[in-house]
Amino acid sequence: MLKLKVTxxxxxxxxxxxxxxxxxxxxxxxALVDLQSGEVTVEGNAEETAVRRAIEDAGFxxxxxx
Length: 66
Fold this sequence. Notes:
This protein is 33% helix and 35% strand.
């Protein structure tokens, strides 16, 4: 499981965009986006760099959650 902090999400539509982008990454089984905390939890064996790139390509920032 991978957890990333996502920057730039301001609404439910943003969260949906992040979820769709992450779920298209190979080896992602499920993406759970929490708009309030600004985090996405990724289930599966996807590469962190691929997930980050997908989020950034969707117009948001991403870094490892602490």
